[in-house]
Every structure is written in C-alpha cells, then in structure tokens.
## 1
Amino acid sequence: MTATLVGKHNLKQHELKQQLLRDEGRSGRGNSGRSAAEGWRRRAPLLPALIFTVLVTQLPFVVTLWYSLRSWNLLRTDGDIFVGLRNYADIFLDSTFRGAALNSVVITLGCVFAAMVLGTFFAILLDRSFKGRGVVRTMLITPFLIMPVAGATLWSVSMLNPSFGLVNWAIGLVGIGPVDWTSQYPVVSILMALVWQWTPFMMLLVLAGLQAQPKDVLEAAQIDGAGWGKTFVFVTLPQLRRYIELGVLLGAIYVVNTFDQIYLMTAGGPGTASANLPFYIYQRAFLGFDIGQAAAMGVVVVIATIFIASFALRLIFRSFDTKD
Amino acid sequence: MLTPRPTSAAPTQGAIKGREQRRRINSSLLTSLTWIIAFLFFAPVLWLVMTAFKQESDAASSPPRFFFEPTLDQFQHVLDSGAGSYFGNSLIATGVSTLLVIILAVPASYALSIRPVKKTQDVLFFFISTKMLPVVAVIMPIYVIAGQLKVLDNIWTLVVLYTAMNLPIAVWMMRSFFQEVPSEVLEAASMDGAGLLKTLRIVLMPMVAPGMAATALICVIFAWNEFFFALNLTAGKAATTPVFLVSQMTSEGLFLAKLSAASVLASLPVVIAGWMAQKQLVRGLSMGAVK
C-alpha cells in the first residue's frame, strides 16, 4: 500500500515536471539566460495576490498558534498566561472533541458519498435528450444556489418540523408516525439538508464528464454487444473517474467546514450530539470564550486537514494533468 | 455473390416495429421518472416559495395547506422590517470583494500560466491549501485583531475577508482559462511589437472574458451566501443578508411565512444568476478543470 502510494507520488512529480517544462516552453525561452530583472518582471504580477493571501490567511494562523499556548479565557480574571502545550494535552482528554471529530468524519463522508451517488444518478438521467430537459436541469441545480442559511432554515422549519413539516406529512401518508427529526436524528437531519444542497454540485460535474465522452466509443461498445450496464461499468465509469475524484475532493473541502446547517438546525444538539469540529470550536471560542483551548483545537484540525489534504491535493493535480 | 440469407437471422418487419415501440415506451418511462425525481428534489424550493405567499395561519398549519389565497403581505413585512440595509451591505461586500478578486487574480494567474515564474506548482499549491485551512482556526485572531483596529461591525472587514476567501479559487480558474490561449497568438502579438500591457489589454482580455465572467459568478455566489464571518464579525451596522435571515428566526413557528419570504428574497439574486449561467457554473465549480 505504502509502496504504491510512494510509487504513484514519484510518477506524479515526474508528470508535474513535464507539465512545468511545457509551461516554460510556451513562453518561448528556457530557464537559462534569464536575468534577475526579467525574473522579477515575471514575478511582479503575482506578488499583490500572493502578499494579500499571506497577510490575510497566514498571519491570523500564526497568531492562533500563539494563542494555543496560552490559558486565556475571557470569562476568567486571572488573564492570559503561558501554559505551553497544556491546551493540546487537554484535547486528548476531551471526549466532546472526539465526538465532534467523529461527527465531522461522518457528516463529510456521508454527505459526499450520498451526494455523489445521487448526483451521478441524476446526471445519467439528464444525459439523454427529452422534452423539458433544460427545465429539469434548472430545477435540479437550484438547491445548490439557494443561500445555505435559507436552505438550513427551510429544512429545519418547513420540512422537518414535527407538527407541520412536509416530511412528516409525506411519511404520514404511508402510515409512519410523526418523527421529531432534529432532536431524535440530528445528524441524519443535517445530512438530509447537506446532501440536498451538494447533490447538484456533483451532478453538474458528472454531467460534464458524461458529455465529454466520445460517442464513437459508446457506439463501439454497443456494436460489440455490451448492454447498458456493462457499457456503464467498463466504459463510462473509468472515463468519469477523474470527474468523480474532482467532485469528491472539492466537495469535501467545503463540506468539512460545514457550519450554517449545524448552527441553524440543531445548534450542535441535543447536547453535543451533532456538533462537528467547526461548530464545537466556535462554541468554545464565542460562547465559552475559552480562546486558548479553542485555538489549540483549531491547530489540531489544521494539522489533520493538512495531512489528509496533502494526499487529496496530489489527486487534484493528477486530475488536472491528465487533461493535457 | 447474391446468396440468399437464411430468413431466420433477419428480423421480420413486425419484430422491428415491436422493438421500436418498446424502445419508445422505455424512453417515455425514463422521461417520466426523470420528471418525478426532479419534482421531488425541487419540492422544498417550491414549498419555500409557496409558503412565502401565504398568511402565517396558512403557513404553519397541520396538515400542510396546498391551496390558499396568495398574498404579497409577507414580502411587504420583510421590506418594512429594514431588510434594505442588510441587502445593501451584502451588495457592497459581494460586489467590491469580487472586483478586488478579479483585479488581484488576473495578473497573478497570468504570471502563473503564460509567463510562468519559478515554482509555479508551489505557488498554486499554496493558494489552494489556504482553502483547506478551516475558517474556525483563524476566526479568533481575526476577531481580536479587528477589535483592536476598531473595524468590528464594519463592512470593509468583510470585503477584505471575502476577497481572501475567493482569491485562491479565482487564481486557479483564471489560470486554466489563460492556458487555453494558443501560444501562437502571443507570439504574433510580440512579433507585431506589442508590449506586455498592450498584449494583455488588446489580445488576452477579449479571449478570457467569458472565463472572467465565470470566475466572477463563483465569487459572487460564495460571497453573497457567506455566513460564518458575517455572524461573528458584524452586528447591527454591517450585518449582511444571511445574518438578517437568522434574525428572523427568533419565533419560528409564528413567523414562518415571513421567514420564507425573506429566504426567497435573499436567495433570488444568486439563483437567477446561476440559472442564467449554468454552463459557466460547471467550469467555475471545478476551478476550470472541466470544460
């Protein structure tokens, strides 16, 4: 397993270098013989964006690192003292943190997986010509465009409300009794709203993949006597892989940061049953005013994210490169 | 040679007709299925819009009321309750930050694609890695710094943060559009003696204009819908539309119709923009990776 990963990685680096060389080639001159002034002239257009991004995103994180080493609670008068790594040690004793971490994983994986399966299904349905296709596509992408705050209130109030919600009315038609969704099944409720919001995103990407398929390959498969199912598994799916990977990665980047739905639908509750890491850290910082502890949690989340993302980013890069 | 084929292999006229008929039935079944699924998936939106046109008593009724006398009262209530200033704030935060993103991202992505600097990959990695930084990990320092600079509850603080939030995506997207410009075009421009700025203005801009529009659209969507920064860094003066929506939630059961009307108004700009630019949306959401 490790060996293959490393092998793939090396291969990737090689590909990246090739890509870079091609890029350099486009400008019409090589690396050698470029003067320092020329180098700066090339770099100059990049600098404003780079400096701005470093200032606004990296500087606060450095400050977070500093806070994480201090015991600083705005509710206590003993103020702000250096405690070294004690905040980090506390995290490992904090069972709520573990619960929130688990929820983060469940919500992210669950949402991305369900949205991808549904999105692929919708994309297949849309990848044929029929009457009203444009209207159907417009209807299907709308949940993604609805403001997430509006979507979250819509689900928690209009759809999942135990007394007048539409979902309970619908399941009542088939004889299932009223369910108090957000208190009995808080994580499932949040997942419903999230999957509803993210399915269009996956659908659009997969649909783009389906429509980029060369039609002659599909015809060839049909002539060879492959049925619809076989053609899908052996011809379409491998070609969609790049699009699916991209959808999963980009979706995960956004879903892992989910805050709006949890804040509005369950407030992390009951208790802390449905809190994910962003929500729990927010609670510690803005409701508990425990700045040192919240900062340490933020740092742990960042380290975990970087660890996972370093694999994910390589996948994205491979996706981008095989295009050329 | 014209040897007579065995008739059993060739389908009869009737069999062809039958297969054609079956195919057509299957096709219309599939179309109906697609419509039903689309309708179910769209139902929450439809319900939201319907609720916005109800009286409060119709909105929170059990069983749900599907037929009612539509009214514009709720929209009137929303506009009367001072939604205007929230929408104005959203407009400034979204508009100005998108403009800033484009101004910063176009030269940067140009440098990263057509005239690559060293370590292009590293820089691209860096930009996108900032998207993986959980926002909660930086919110406290931002809060404290903003407090010390006395820019809490100030719309320009959101402008700066939204610019930083969208800049990485914009750089990636714009780079992919720049890379599609054929190098011959640039060579021709330099042969004709056009300088850097002139090439950029006359040759490149028209070619990447659709890409720039797609980039701007994505930035608008994310900035308009952003809630976390707005919730934590603004209060009455600089609060944006999502914060306004949440403020309507206080007694949810009683004000469901009004809340729905506010949700419809808040979502409308992005929904309409997204409907109109469906093609560009795909390209944008995939950061240019998918044509």
## 2
Amino acid sequence: MKPLATLSVLTIAALSLTACADDPKSSSGGLTVSASDSTCEVSKTDLKAGPSTFKVTNKGSKVTEFYVYADGDRIMGEVENVGPGLTRNLVVDLPKGTYEGACKPGMVGDGIRQKITVTGEAAKKLSDSQQLKAAATSYERYVNSQTVALIAKTEEFVTAVKEGDVTEAKRLYPIARTYWERIEPVAEKFGDLDPLTDGREADAKAEKRDFTGWHRIEKQLWVDNNTEGMAPYADDLLANVKKIVALGKDAPLTALELAQGSKGLLDEVATSKITGEEDEFSHTDLWDFKANIEGSEAAIAALRPVLEKQDPALVKELDAKFKALDDDLDQYQDDSGDWTFYDKLTKAQVKRLSDLVAAVSEPISRVAAVVAESA
Amino acid sequence: MSEQNEITSGLSRRKLIGAAGIGALAVGAGGGYAVGRQSDEPTAGVPDPDAKPVPFEGAHQAGIVTPAQDRLYFVTLDMTSEERVDLISLLKDWTEASRQMTQGNDVGKFGAVSGSPFAPPEDTGEALGLPPSGLTITVGFGRSLFVDAKGKARFGLEGKLPERLKDLPAFSGDDLDPALCDGDLAIQACANDPQVAVHAVRNLVRIAFGRASVRYSQMGFGRTSSTSSAQVTARNMLGFKDGTANIKVEDNKDVEDFVWVPKEDGPDWLVGGSYLVSRKINMRIEIWDREPLEGQENIIGRAKGSGGPLSGGDEFAKIDFKKKNDRGAPVIDMKSHVRLAHPDFNKGAKLLRRGYNFVDGSDGLGQLSAGLFFIAYQRDPEKQFVQVQHSLAGSQNDLLNEYIVHVGSGLFACPPGVGRKGYWGEGLFA
Ligand SMILES: [Cu+2]
C-alpha cells in the first residue's frame, strides 16, 4: 500500500498547461514579444482561446519579465529574468476574455502593458480525446483480467486459512497478492478500503484500528506458524477485495490517472519493496515487486499509442529501462516461478535493483505530462 | 526548442537582488544617531558578493584554484550503464546543467516552476531565489571508469587511461571503508551556501539516474585551507590553522608547476586538468580535546593562536627546523605534522589543498563523528600526495596519527575546463 496523495489531485476538467514541449501544436501560432528597455511589442493581440506560446525576446539592456494578467492583475502566466539578448517561451492557456500583456524592464513597476483579447471556444477538454478514451478502455480490460484471477486466488487463500492448512496458505499468499499488486492504483483510489486490506501493522497501531488484511494473516502464518483466529480476518479480506473490485468497475481510471498509476506502482517498489518492509514477516517482497512492475508496464502499454505519437523517444527509453530491470529481476526467479526470499538478497543486489527502478522512474514521471499534452 | 541560448540560459533564480538590497540598506541613513558618522546621501547598495557568479568557462575547471568557498558537497558515482553513448550523454548533460546552475539559473528549459503542471519540475527548486553563492562544480574520473577489475577497457576508452591514475598505495595506519572509497566519477560542488551546493549535486545525481548511481557523498563546511592570499587561513576541527603553506592562486609559478597537467605529462585529453585526491579523515575529537595546549602545539609544530611556527615569528614566518631549545632538542619536533608535511622533507612536493571540515552527527556513544574531508589537487599524485602521505603515515611518524584515522580515499583525473560549447571530458572521445 502507499499513501494516497498522487491520484486525488488529478481530477481535471480542462487543461491548463503553463508550458509545453518544444513545439506546442495547439498554440496560436508563433507569437512574439519584443521587449526593450522602453517598449513591449506583442506581435498579435487577438488570440484564440487555448494555449498560446509567447516567445519573449529581450532586445534591451536590462533584465526583463513578461506577464499575462487577467482582471485585477491576476497572473495567468509569467516568464522571469529574461536577460538582455535572451529569448524565452511562455506558454499560457487563456480562456475567452480580455487580458493584458506586460513587459517589466528592470523587473520593477507595473510594466509596459497592452490589451490582449481572446475569443472562441474554451480549451479542449482532456476527456474528449478518443485516443485517451481508448487507452483507458484498454487498461480497463487489463484490470478486469486481473481482478477475475485476484478474486479466485484470494478465495483459495481464504479457504486454506480457514481450513488451517498453513503450508497451502503460505504458498498461496504471494501468488494471490501478485494480482493485487498489479492493479494497486485501482485499490488506492478507495482510500478507506486500501489500508484495511493492505495496511501495515505499524500504521494500524498509529491509526488506532485493528490490524487487518493481507499482512495480518501473513504475520500469523509466518510468526506463529498457524491460522488460529484468522477466519474472521480471512472473510473480511475477501469481502474487501470484492468490494474494491466492484467499485473499481464503476469508476475506471482515466488515462491521466493510469499514467500517474504507472508511476505510483514504481514509487511503491522504490519505497516499500526495496526496503523489504511490505512483506516483513514472509519476505515474499519480490513477488510483489515483480507484480508492481508488470502493472506499471501494463499501464504504459495501454498508453502506448498516445505516447508513440507524442514522444516516441520517451517510449524507446521506457522500453529499454524496463527491459534492463526485468532482465536483472529474472535471476531471482526459479523454474517453478518462485522468487528468492527478500532477506536472502545481498546489499549490492538490492542497490542494483534500486538503481534500475530509479532509472525507469525518471522517464515514467514524464508520462503524465505527455498524456496531458496530447489532448 | 530551437535557440541555443534558450537551452543554455534556463530560468534565473537571481531575483531582484540588487534592487531589494538598495532599499534595505538605505534605511537608517539620516537618522539622529548617524550624525557625523554617515553622510546624508543614501549610499548605493552594497552589492551582494554572492550575486556574482564564478565563470564556468575557461581553460581549467572552476573549483580548483577558485578561492575556496565555505561549503562542500562531494559525491562519487558508479556508471550503471556500460554504454559509451550513455557516458558521453551524461557528461554533456552534466556540463549543461552545471553551466546553468553555476550562473544562478535553474536546470532545464523550464526550471523549477515554469514547466507543465503534470510533469515533475526539471529543477528540484531548493535553490530558488538564492544567488549563485560562488558555486563551482568540478568533475573527476576514477581509474575504474577506464578499466574494469580485470584491466579490460570500459566505454571504449582503450589507451585513454592516464599512467598516473593508479590506485593509491596502502598507507600504514589506514582503516579504509570500501564504501567510502573510489568511484567511476566524482563531483565536487563548492559554494558559500550549503543549500546551493546540495541543490547542485542533487540535480546532477538525478540527471544521472539510469546511467550512474551514487556510491557515497560527503558534506563539508568551514574550508580548512585558503587557496587565495585574500583569504584568512581557516581552522580545522582540531582548532588549528590549516593550509598556511598551501599553494595560493596568486602563486602563478606554483600553480603551473604543481597543479595543472602540462603537455609533456599527457595524456592529451587531460592537459590543463589536474588530479584530485580525496581522503576522509576521522578525528578522535574528545581525546584531542583532553590534550594539553603544549602537547597539541608540539604535535602540530605551530602555535594554536597565531598559527606561527614554534621556531618563532608570525603565521607566515619561515620555519626554522634547525632551531634547538635549551635542552638541545629541536623546537619543531621531528615528528610534528608541519615538519613531516613540509616540502623540504618531501623532495619539494607541494599540493593545492581544498579540504573541508565535516561533522556527521554523533556516533551513538556521544562522541562527535567529525574530521577533515581532505581534498588536494596536483599534477603528479605519486610525487606529491603519495610522497607526503608516506612521510606522515604510520604510528612511528606524524604525532597526529594518534588522533586521526583515514577511512575514505579516492583518486580522480579532472579534465580541463570547457568553452562555450564543449563538455567535460570531450577529449576522451575524440
Ligand atoms: Cu502495497
């Protein structure tokens, strides 16, 4: 499990990009701002609604700034510290209305201003993109395939626990969790249910609630080597897993959420898996580790058409970095599919894995922006 | 983006330093108490000395003879990629980012706050609003960058390994922790503000993800050697002035003779560069602090207050090693630190030292984990650092060895500087 910060901020209706990639297609052409110590010439002051790129060139001798203000000097966008002779881009998404563009030679005062009028439709909505809808649908299919197996394997696990079959329960624990960990961003959308199913003992204690879910049973199995008193926890786990799956179906992830989710899964690896603290009793972290990575790769696969179109270099980089990570991980899986217990890894091996995860995480952190720009 | 200048300029974090300074400093002028002491004319703002960046471009890398800044952040990394293209692109990216950061700018096209709201910022942002603070970034290449453990060339760098980039020999008394030694690449970031130095390294490390990974890092403060005669001699954690006899940037001849790799030394790609030796030296602070003043001064060979040699005179007085006391013993102990480290007893060897104090918290027994992160630049490690260290090392030599232990070590070849367009180590790939 992981904290719930990342997904909640992403409920986006309209896009407001302040900056784009090298050549923002949707902008109103090549807008130039020519600034000197006493003048400020904007090449075009009638703009269409949507993102516009102002190319600000400082031809004066003082450092300057360029602002776009709405009523009441509300700043819509700014580019600061444009030194003499320099050019810098400002991309600002302007809805219909009137604005003022202002150069501030010497970076002081109200600036040299002129009116800018924006007409036409509001900026395009991200949710309108057919391509992004297709990506979300594709990921939904993946989630569905995983949830069927998740429920089936969790049922088997729960049965073994209730029958007191410790060996079988231990065998099934990491396997059932694999399906869970692959689609963790779905679970994490439901803030109240995720801790109940996947919370850690220390967190339960801190939050003054009963320690429940996967890790409660894990502790009983590995520390006490029995299943005593676990039947209610097992039933409860299955019920919550089913609830999450049902809720997830009703509110599938958007393309942007799944872009964030692909990053979230790797963050999960980088924080709780690398430290071996997720499965602290069973040391089956590498099952989860691999599953998180597979989930992340699946999210990227769903977004692939969008990414290929927007930023093929990023796709190449992601492919290469994922491959390096997968290749390194391979050595820890035996022919029967079992993974090395995490406490058997050397410090050097963990560092290597950590480096490889970081190597994928950096490019993956740029995916959401590329998705946002595709609208 | 098309224009080169946009890429290299980045976003400046030096905001309004001049203007704000004038307003603030003019307050108080003309007040009653100031009569006779201050003119009625508001004085022009004193320019913030940290607002002026250290030039990045030049024949040599900045951060070697640059007057020592107050803070250090040092890191070594290992390549996690074996691809030559990755090494080249990393050096290019580092050069570009360092060019921006040393001039007080954010990293990247959009910096810390002007990029897409959906992307992580290109610059980590903790230096926003801070002046360049004298930031210099200096890189070095370890032996392991050129050859692997079996002596096989890496990154297609056959024939590029400098002859002098050997592993340092073992010194008597060393207690080296491999986790604090060596590395394929080293970055020395110095600045007058620790936040600026940390920001620089953090961004460079981030840029390296997927290509290189950190081996260890070290923070330092209170420059322990002065590299310019304009600077007072700083003190180390033992309370003594350190670096009185250091090479100063003003000593052109010493700098030429002892710091820069000349053409005749080679290899070509390193001409104008230098060799960096790093040593992490732990000090047994509590034991030292119980040593009587006379004992401390005898161990060092200098007076604690003035820094002058025990043979007499002020800090910069010539040391008289022959002078005897009334019992007929040398005034400067034969095993004192100053004598054993002196060029006269080391075949004339001099080093340009740029060490920094460090405190890594306490050790759990209530003792300071503190000492000296020693850095020295030279054109020939064997004749310079190794020569001096052999004189000092071992329980039979430097009296100071009872109070210090070397726990980390490294030797790096630092390439020459770059011009407006080049990148560090470019000559390696020619
Ligand atoms: Cu989890």
